[in-house]
Amino acid sequence: MSDDLKELNVITQAHYQKAQAAMQAVQAEENKLRGLLNDLSDQEKNGREMLSDDTAMRITGGDLAWNSWIGRNRKILNHQLANVMVRKEMVYKDLQTHFGKADVMEKLLEHEMQARRQIRAVALVDSIMEGKLSCGM
Predict the structure, then answer these.
(1) pLDDT of residue 137 exceeding 60
(2) pTM of the model
(3) What 8-state DSSP symbol labels residue 88?
(4) CA angle 94, 22, 93 (to 5 degrees)
């Protein structure tokens, strides 16, 4: 394998691994936000159950404040999740590009190895044939 191709393979693989790491980071952030949204839904459910039994909270407007707090936090989390999903799409396209380059590089390396094997096989056959001819066969 030529040194240039080896160096290019190292660079290509490094870029691909970097793109994979970026995708994992965005995916982790998405999972975190989805978890927070699920937690908020659980809190909302528990809060509604508690508020339905608490007339003092309803009289003082605590239920409205609670619902407002839930709504604000859900809006913030959904907005953050939407931003992450946009970033995820961009990172995904970058990952696809680097995967394609890594795939092409792998095929180039395979092609070069096959070409070298073929050259060695031809050289081996030639040397065997020369040996037979020099022995007088």
Answers:
(1) no
(2) 0.72
(3) H
(4) 20
